[in-house]
Design a protein that fits this description.
globular; 4 helices; 7 strands; Alpha-D-Glucose-1,6-Bisphosphate, Chain A, domain 4; alpha+beta; about 30% helix
């Protein structure tokens, strides 16, 4: 496949860029909105090039693990990382719920500020994926807005609370 499917999310927040940035880089704040409807446990968050985000999403007795390795960080403008499903030892692994889900996603966040509001641009695309992984991602793109949308609603509420 020559052109990779890409999920694109753009959201405008009624909050200054430094505050939106903080909700992505402070482990206490990130855990409050990332992974709606599950308990999000941040085991490590080092938002620097080469740094890691080790994340566990827990519901009942079940857990799903993710890691992100930051490749480019320009505070408060841009975050680029490689996100992966992992096993409990933080080793990149097949997603147990979707075996053809790509092992690594290139995630890019850009934060632009104008008139006291912040526009967040997020893109998600397969990285070094097989044809089966690319096809799985392409089939899932349309529904990704539901999960990300629920997280963005929580993030909006958090930003309102932080500014009160």
């Amino acid at each position: 496949m020559s052109e990779l499917p890409t999920y694109v999310l753009e959201r405008i927040f009624d909050a200054p860029r430094h505050l939106v940035w903080k909700t992505w880089t402070d482990p206490v704040l990130l855990a409050r909105w990332y992974g709606p409807n599950v308990e999000t446990i941040i085991h490590r968050l080092d938002v620097t090039p080469g740094g890691l985000w080790l994340n566990e999403m827990k519901w009942g007795e079940n857990s799903m693990y993710q890691r992100a390795e930051y490749t480019d960080v320009v505070e408060p403008e841009r975050i680029v990382c490689l996100m992966s499903s992992t096993n409990a030892n933080w080793e990149i692994a097949v997603n147990p719920k979707m075996p053809d889900w790509q092992r690594v996603l290139l995630t890019t966040l850009v934060f632009d500020e104008a008139d006291g509001k912040t526009t967040m641009h997020l893109t998600w695309a397969p990285h070094e994926a097989t044809d089966a992984e690319i096809a799985c991602f392409a089939g899932a793109v349309e529904g990704m807005g539901r999960g990300w949308g629920a997280g963005m609603e929580l993030l909006t509420e958090l930003l309102t609370e932080l500014q009160a």
